[in-house]
Design a protein that fits this description.
Blueprint lengths: L4 E5 L5 E4 L2 H7 L5 E7 L3 H11 L3 H6 L8 E4 L4 E11 L2 E11 L3 E6 L5 H14 L1 H4 L3 H36 L7 H28 L8 H74 L2 H7 L4 H33 L1
Parallel strand pairs: 3-7
Antiparallel strand pairs: 1-2, 1-3, 4-5, 5-6, 6-7
Helix pairs in contact: 6-7, 6-8, 7-8, 8-10
Length: about 350
């Protein structure tokens, strides 16, 4: 669904909504400038700007390429700026492109939005209405208002990711069983996408502030410099969150290793105890097997069994006690050597 609006902004600050593109183009000849706002347009609609405003066909193609990175292109009759708009809903990062074409007496905004188009159109329109004293100064100031709003929205996304990292850390420390490591991988991908966008958008503002575009006057550079400061701050926050995420992943690995080591120690302790008991009773088992044979009675005499068997049991008990203390002594020596 496409929803387009065409505005004529007079030098006095009055904003007129035009019925179509032709009326907007004819109106700009009387002074002031036009703002053409497109949301999810088709290629045919934007192709009209090629002849009307001298927009290059490659710039029109960029508006329909979802794989583009933020950039700025300077053409003889306009400057093309591509920014990413971020939103974070239900733990899902959504990215929408915003293309801006800035000319001497026009600005074109092309939004590729997923649903709620009318809401987003009103949002941009309200931004300009609320800052009309700045907007009436010309197209560069309208572009600053839009970019400033897009950049400020990124802070909301960064804060939402920070809250998720805090929640993940608390869950990891309180109850490791309920912690899902895949959440960290999802946040990692989101931070990478955010960092990539902020890096290139910061470069855009650098080029604007060094006067690469002839359509942005010196008096507007102070406003774009403020946007650059925000982008630089958000980029640093993203880097900090990536470091926190790396620490959490290492912490999760350490906790899992500790848990596995604890389980291994418990198993080793059980095996050690069973081995200790088995070592004590192995000679006793051998002796009891011999003592239970008829040959033992023949050796001691069948009439002497009342004395022979108690002595045999006493000898077995003595051997067991001696084995116990020998093994304890060997275990202490091994622990001292470690």
């Amino acid at each position: 669904m496409a929803k387009n609006s065409f505005y004529y902004i007079e030098k006095s600050g009055k904003i007129d909504l035009m019925d179509n593109l032709v009326d907007a183009l004819s109106k700009v000849k009387t002074g002031g400038f036009i703002w053409l706002s497109y949301s999810n347009p088709d290629k045919e609609e934007l192709s009209l700007l090629i002849d009307a405003l001298g927009i290059h066909p490659l710039s029109i193609e960029d508006c329909f390429d979802d794989e583009q990175i933020p950039k700025i292109d300077n053409f003889p009759t306009y400057t093309h700026v591509l920014f990413n708009r971020f939103s974070y809903k239900s733990k899902k990062l959504e990215i929408n492109e915003v293309n801006l074409f800035l000319g001497e007496n026009f600005i074109v905004s092309v939004n590729q939005l997923d649903g709620k188009l009318q809401h987003n159109l009103k949002e941009f329109k309200e931004l300009v209405d609320n800052r009309i004293e700045m907007a009436k100064e010309g197209p560069p100031f309208v572009m600053h208002i839009i970019l400033d709003h897009i950049v400020d929205q990124k802070l909301v996304v960064i804060e939402a990711i920070e809250d998720e990292l805090i929640t993940a850390e608390d869950t990891m420390l309180d109850n490791l069983k309920e912690f899902n490591p895949s959440d960290l991988q999802r946040i990692r991908r989101d931070l990478l996408s955010l960092r990539k966008s902020l890096f290139h958008e910061r470069e855009i503002l650098v080029k604007i502030n060094r006067k690469d575009s002839k359509f942005i006057p010196d008096e507007a550079l102070f406003h774009f410099s403020d946007v650059y400061d925000h982008l630089n701050k958000f980029f640093e926050l993203t880097e900090i969150n990536r470091e926190v995420l790396t620490s959490l992943m290492q912490m999760n690995l350490s906790l899992l290793n500790n848990k596995m080591a604890k389980a291994a120690n418990q198993t080793n302790g059980s095996v050690r105890r069973l081995t200790f008991i088995t070592t004590i009773f192995m000679p006793l088992t051998l002796l009891s097997g011999i003592g239970g044979m008829s040959e033992y009675s023949m050796m001691t005499g069948s009439s002497n069994w009342k004395i022979a068997y108690p002595l045999f049991l006493l000898a077995m008990a003595g051997i067991g006690i001696v084995n116990y203390f020998i093994l304890r002594w060997m275990a202490r020596n091994d622990s001292d050597q470690v």
